[in-house]
Amino acid sequence: MSKGPFLLWIGALTLIMATPWQGWAEKPFEWVPAQPEAVGISSEKLRALSAELAKRQTKAFLVVRHDKLIWEWYSPDHGPDKKHYTASLAKAIVGGMALAIALDDGYLRLDDPVSRYVPQWRTDPRKSKITIRHLGSHTSGLDDSRPNEEAPWKDAFWRRELPPRDPFTIARDVTPLLFDPGERFQYSNPGIAMLTYAVAAAMRNAPNNNIRDLLRDRIYRPIGLKDDEWSIGYGQTFHVDGLPLIAAWGGANFTARATARIGRLVLHRGRWEGRQIISENSIAAVCQSAGLPGDCGMGWWTNAGKRFSFLPVDAVWGAGAGDQILLVIPSLDLVVVRYGGDLGPQAPSQENVGRYLFQPLMQVITPEDPAQSGTAGPYPPSPVIKSLSWAAANEVVRLARGSDNWPITWGDDDRLYTAYGDGWGFEPGVARKLSLGLAVVTGFPPRITGQNIRAPTLEQYGDGAKGKKASGLLMVDGTLYALVRNAGNSQLAYSRDHGATWTWAPWKFTTSFGCPTFLNFGPNYAGARDGYVYIYSPDADDAYSAADQMVLARVPKGSILEPSAYEYFVRLDSDQKPVWSRNVADRGPVFRHPGHCWRSGITYNPALKRYMWFHVYPKQTRGDGAPGARGCGVYDAPEPWGPWTTAFHTEEWDMDPGESGCFPAKWMDQTGKNMWLVFSGEDSFSVRRVDITVHKSGDGPK
């Protein structure tokens, strides 16, 4: 194994390519050096960025893409074997990772009250409400402490004296609560101290609850970190309440390569060279948004709330004073480490990081790169679906020209029920143009027949937003339900005689759910996951506004007409189980794709055991201000709430997808690998075959 670095001189800068080593990992991983262009990055732009960072007190700058080390620069007084302080980046790579171990081993959950593990808080009416989730996401209400602040307890926190003047006792007994837990964001070093306190207390009866040892044995050594490449907790251990407590709010030192390896573990969702070091669920619980003010993870920052508009929504990072940064972007398969001093004067640190590091990084990705052009999608690649192959344009079936919309459901009579908008329906067509008309489709593509059903109590008139239109159809136990948009916000109607007569529900969705659609299963809802009906919508009050996220509601199938029976998806808990609320104001995103959440259709594919969600994107504005092409995406998941992965994504399809689409369950073959998309391209009932290639067992993305 080579011990000498490969050197590439660029002016006064030194680019040091990877020096692999025989680490502690059972299957040693070695960084593979590559030229930036090989992974879709411009050398010229990356060189310019590195030079600019060098002027801004940078000590180390590493860029890893597709598991290739494409850039590694150090200042003359630094190097690949030299540790650097990480400041509050420790909250992510020490505190967050220690919490992931405790979650993985089942010692605690994110929504556990901290008082379960800290008895001193049990009688406090406010602190007893603090959860693990609150501590990790800086929403506990605990005040912050910074060095040299006037309050005596704040200065004492940083002196790290022996108990009872140690930082953990101060965090537990002295730090005041500024507001009720979960009310708002307040960065808090004592909050992270209490997080690691709670982790150690929860693991009191474990073989080892010293997080320094746990991290070494469970994460750091298995991913190849040598013991001399890192140190944590200021090199101290505080013994409080019979617990060995290690600081995780700061006090860590890591080589840049060691930090990059932790980033790689997060990128691969806890998997390392074929071995699951930490479960995917635990990594997600720590690194995804906690669903609370600030959109933080557990010690990690996330872009779920689009803190930086130019970063993908799945970006996560750890950050510390002096702008110590570990950035991980799964959708771009990218890991970046930056060490040094402050990137800029005066402005808040996050603003400088965005201006001088994150935004320029996005500009080094070449336009022709798939991840930049959009085919990578907002979520990681599907572990089941390798690719989708669409039928040629001349094979697309088009009926009912001049009509669009086309939500669809499989009835108890084996017919497909659908609805059209702004048109005349199937030939020969109705005499007067309808905003909402009903029809049925029989046969199997390409030999299909459509027939209009006259339903005076459902039919509507008015073009565009001026007329009500169906956005979702579902038959359950012989009753046909329609979700109707442009109804302020949307409204339900139902028919018990196969669409001949309809009754409108006396209530409406008035918050969000402006373009709702049903999750469809088999005929008459056969093969449904459970006894609930699921409804998805962009998080908007109308069908014309592009949203940043999709929301989800569920209702018992026997109570669809009862508004009080509806529950709204809030978030996934630490076990990746859905949390629901009766209050629509508590709703959280079930899917995020900023500026792209618009109209969609979702169906379960029983053979693949995946939920197939087709998204049509709103037209994107071109550089000259004119509307551009319309793209689309196909996302899949094992459950109605995710986790979502990308099966297909493009910002510009090879034909117009229209304004809506879905995969009828009736037209999926027994293998699940052949489906037909119904979409409204060219204002028609358009049907296009899609063939699915699945990953071979064990061959999917890690």
Automatic annotation (TrEMBL):
SUPFAM superfamilies the UniProt entry points to: beta-lactamase/transpeptidase-like (SSF56601)
Leader sequence segment: none
Residue ranges constituting the Beta-lactamase-related domain according to the UniProt record: 55-338
Limits of the DUF4185 domain: 489-655
Pfam families documented for this protein: Beta-lactamase, DUF4185
Coiled coil segments of this chain: none
Stored PANTHER family: BETA-LACTAMASE-RELATED, BETA-LACTAMASE-RELATED DOMAIN-CONTAINING PROTEIN
Protein name: Beta-lactamase class C and other penicillin binding protein
